[in-house]
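Checklist before submission:
- one chain only
- standard amino acids only
- sequence pasted in full

Submission:
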Amino acid sequence: MFHKLKSALAAVIALAVVAPAATAQDQRPDLVVAVNNLPGSLEGIEEMGNVAVRITYSMYDSLIRRDFLADGSGQASELVPGLAESWTRIDDRTLELKLREGVLFHDGSELTADDVVFSMTSTRGQGQNPLIGSAKRYMDTISHVIPLDKYTVQVVSKEPDVLLEQRLAGYAFWIVNAKNYLTVGKDAFARNPVATGPYKMDEWVEGEYIRLAAHDDYFGGKPTAKSVTFTEVPEMSARIAGLVSGEYDISVNISPDQIPTVESYDDLKVEQIVLDNTHMLIFWTVGPLEDKRVRQALSLSIDRDLLRQALWADKNYTPNGHQLPSYVMYMEDYPTFEYNVEKAKALLAEAGYNGEEIVYRFPLNYYLLSTEAAQAMQQMWSQAGLNVKLEPVENWSQVRATDGGHIRPWSNTHRMPDPLGSFVPQWGKLSGIQNNSRLEDRKWDAPAAFNDAQDVILTSTDWDQRQQAYREALDIWKDEAPGTMLYNPLETYAMRKDITWKPYGLYYMDLRPYNLQFAE
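Returned file contents:
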């Protein structure tokens, strides 16, 4: 009898011990996001494209953070503490930053000044011959980083830099774990980054999904989702269908004409924002496009107003020059992109263009409505006498193929409210446009005056002088026409109504606790 009583008591005690553990199970939701494409790398300075930063923004942190929600718009530029709790200008080239203490990486190790130094050295993306060359156009202004103590660094620029603080808030300056990076190497790190953000790598199935798990030791608070899975769903109709069925919680890249469909469901809603990102065309200076008059004619014969009305319900806009209204140096009086078919015809006649085939090669399912835009522009170009053949392909490697192709799509993200955030790195002397090592014949041989003006924008601390140089560079770019701007797209996210989340003007999907909540 005693033994039976003892056994029963032990069972009761065991239940008492197990019960709290069961009730303490993680009740946070597993968020599933349907995306049009997945990146090939999650190394923050190797892959800075649109499909990558929507994922990596919640994996990494920067020393200084741009608060996009400061005014509620999702496009604000107020700077607030990130991994650095404070910063002080020492002089026009030097910024001293005090790191937060106790910030933990995904592997449980603590952030120190050594990680900051490594993140901004030639071992990774800065200097004359960096490991990741594409980062040089963003990091090249940095001379060196000095670790003063375990939690204090000084970032020193080569020249006076009026935008150093804004630069450090950009995603080329996300901080990585130095020891892990050096141990596993760049390629392995790109598949499994060790950083400080609210989510960390869990599983990556190529061509299917990338799943992140909550980093519960995040210094900004415990993440509100247990996991986030970015699932590749190229077709927009499938992204909407999966949202309706409950397979997905958020779907990206929804076109304006599908918004009524989404809103017809009581449990779904949309969040929209016109992006600080411009859909572009690159005109390779080869074949018929060697003559800038043909390139000018291509731009002149595009009716951008009609494109916006037909494709975007006129809910977006085309910038007047390579700039945004949010720029400190915004020039309201700068001319808009001209639509003039007769002028285009005259330029083609002067150039001796005689109907030679021009190939526009573009990837399917990457830029929203890019196929529809291409078809519309083909008709517009034909009205000016331009013989443009559309060549849709499956991926970017085919777009960049060495054979053929005269036009390709692109987008320019305005990473800072200044030409240093887009115009200079995307089109300047360190850009891939001017330094096309794979396709030497297609690189743009920019006039010296263009690069000289960009040097002034980069190094001058006189805002009037910078603006004048900016205007001169825009004039040259418009005349040379190595490319043109179409519009800034309207980005629409469809989601469950019980999710509270706001999009930003960049392609970031910020899933930090302050911007992602779920109704009880």
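Reviewer check: The longest strand covers residues 84-91.
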